[in-house]
Amino acid sequence: MISSVRGLVLSALGSTVIIEVGGVGLAVNVTPATALAARIGQELRLHTTLVVREDALTLYGFDSPDELAVFELLTGVTGVGPKSGLGVLAVLSPDQVARAVADDDDAAFRKVSGIGPKTAKLIVLSLTGKLAVTAASAPTLGRLAPAGVGESVLAALVGLGWSEKVAAPVVEQTLTEAGDADKGSVAVLLRLALGKLGPAQHTIGGRA
């Protein structure tokens, strides 16, 4: 089992980063926020899990142990594959997943492409009692985001396949609604924007 990797980032595109470890480039599947935060030529450490199948060995990486733990819980639910689990974490933070489960809010999981009503309800049922809510996530109105943050979020969404015409108003709405603590974080704003875009236009979800 490969539980973590650390090395120089060779490339970061969409939802994949390639990290050089001991002279070998490892392709790691990550959330778009993680890929966006990665910098080519800089060191990156990820908490990872290796998914083994007959036709492939696929590595999934996360910024925190909490994300990895939630991913493994999600992929233990019938009907939720690794891509769908990664898709959930692209839209919801671990705390938001825990909150949705605690509130019996299966609608939160239906935002992810490939997760229908039955699977969403099964996620809530399967994860009940397995996650602790450690933070509230309700956004409040606040100051404007630092210059360049909105542009970075928009560029990331365009890179993921949405048109600028579709993505721009979503980014603007996200900036308006985000709390002060979130306005300076490209990763958080990207996650919020992905949640607003909805499953019909997602390119990162789907069962696997």
From TrEMBL:
Residues 72-91, 107-126 form the Helix-hairpin-helix DNA-binding motif class domain. InterPro entries: DNA_helicase_Holl-junc_RuvA_I, Hlx-hairpin-Hlx_DNA-bd_motif, NA-bd_OB-fold, RuvA, RuvA_2-like, RuvA_C, RuvA_C_sf. It is found in: Cytoplasm. Pfam families: HHH_5, RuvA_C, RuvA_N. Gene3D superfamilies: 5' to 3' exonuclease, C-terminal subdomain (1.10.150.20), DNA helicase RuvA subunit, C-terminal domain (1.10.8.10), Nucleic acid-binding proteins (2.40.50.140). Residues 149-208 are annotated as: Domain III. Its main location: cytoplasm. Transmembrane segments: none annotated. GO terms for molecular function: helicase activity. SUPFAM superfamilies: DNA helicase RuvA subunit, C-terminal domain (SSF46929), Nucleic acid-binding proteins (SSF50249), RuvA domain 2-like (SSF47781). Homotetramer. Forms an RuvA(8)-RuvB(12)-Holliday junction (HJ) complex. HJ DNA is sandwiched between 2 RuvA tetramers; dsDNA enters through RuvA and exits via RuvB. An RuvB hexamer assembles on each DNA strand where it exits the tetramer. Each RuvB hexamer is contacted by two RuvA subunits (via domain III) on 2 adjacent RuvB subunits; this complex drives branch migration. In the full resolvosome a probable DNA-RuvA(4)-RuvB(12)-RuvC(2) complex forms which resolves the HJ. The RuvA-RuvB-RuvC complex processes Holliday junction (HJ) DNA during genetic recombination and DNA repair, while the RuvA-RuvB complex plays an important role in the rescue of blocked DNA replication forks via replication fork reversal (RFR). RuvA specifically binds to HJ cruciform DNA, conferring on it an open structure. The RuvB hexamer acts as an ATP-dependent pump, pulling dsDNA into and through the RuvAB complex. HJ branch migration allows RuvC to scan DNA until it finds its consensus sequence, where it cleaves and resolves the cruciform DNA. This is Holliday junction branch migration complex subunit RuvA. The gene is ruvA.
